[in-house]
């Protein structure tokens, strides 16, 4: 039996997922890639995946490229290169095709219906990503309370999210969570 390499297998999985990355790749690919490489294939553990995601999000550049770091952890430079091409190639071609179609049929009923459908889909994917990373990173009920409090503050005020991140880091450093 001929087994595929982890790099090829992950790249094919990401290529398919990138075609469904509606509303931003991170909101769909974050949970999907995390589930695939941690629970499905056990190539990484939760801490490795969360750290890779956090490092990629803190680095300058497109948020979607966290898959490059995951690919690198699994397959070195070849993993990084192939997963990057897998996440960018198919979705770029699909976007270019959709833009051309939309330009030809601007204002049509189908174009309007698709535009209206994408907003709730994007919100659902964003909520799924938030739930996944909350489940992975919250290790106690204190962390759950802090997460809910931070979400409420973000929804009710115009405070800069960086300040909440700093507060969370301080709470962790002081051993409160």
Automatic annotation (TrEMBL):
GO cellular component assignments: plasma membrane
User: Molecular function (GO) terms listed?
Assistant: chromate transmembrane transporter activity
Does this UniProt record's set of keywords contain Transmembrane helix?
yes
Where's it found, cell-wise? Cell membrane
Segments spanning the bilayer are: 12-30, 113-133
Top-level taxon of the source organism:
Bacteria
Q: Which UniProt keywords apply?
A: Cell membrane, Membrane, Transmembrane, Transmembrane helix
Membrane topology field: Multi-pass membrane protein
Q: Tell me yes or no: is Transmembrane among this UniProt entry's keywords.
A: yes
Q: Which family does it belong to?
A: Belongs to the chromate ion transporter (CHR) (TC 2.A.51) family.
Which PANTHER family does the entry link to? CHROMATE TRANSPORT PROTEIN-RELATED, CHROMATE TRANSPORTER
Q: What is this protein called?
A: Chromate transporter
């Amino acid at each position: 039996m001929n087994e595929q390499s982890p790099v090829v297998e992950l790249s094919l999985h990401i290529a398919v997922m990138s075609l469904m990355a509606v509303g931003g790749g991170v909101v769909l690919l974050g949970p999907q890639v995390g589930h695939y490489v941690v629970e499905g294939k056990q190539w990484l553990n939760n801490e490795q995946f969360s750290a890779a995601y956090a490092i990629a999000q803190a680095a300058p550049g497109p948020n979607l490229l966290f898959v490059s770091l995951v690919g690198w952890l699994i397959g070195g430079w070849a993993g990084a290169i192939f997963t990057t091409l897998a996440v960018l190639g198919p979705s770029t071609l699909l976007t270019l095709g959709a833009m051309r179609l939309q330009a030809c049929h601007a204002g049509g009923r189908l174009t309007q219906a698709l535009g209206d459908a994408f907003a709730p889909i994007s919100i659902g994917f964003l909520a799924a990503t938030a739930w996944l990373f909350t489940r992975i990173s919250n290790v106690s009920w204190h962390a759950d309370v802090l997460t809910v409090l931070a979400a409420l503050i973000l929804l009710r005020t115009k405070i800069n999210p960086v300040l909440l991140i700093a507060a969370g880091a301080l709470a962790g450093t002081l051993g409160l969570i």
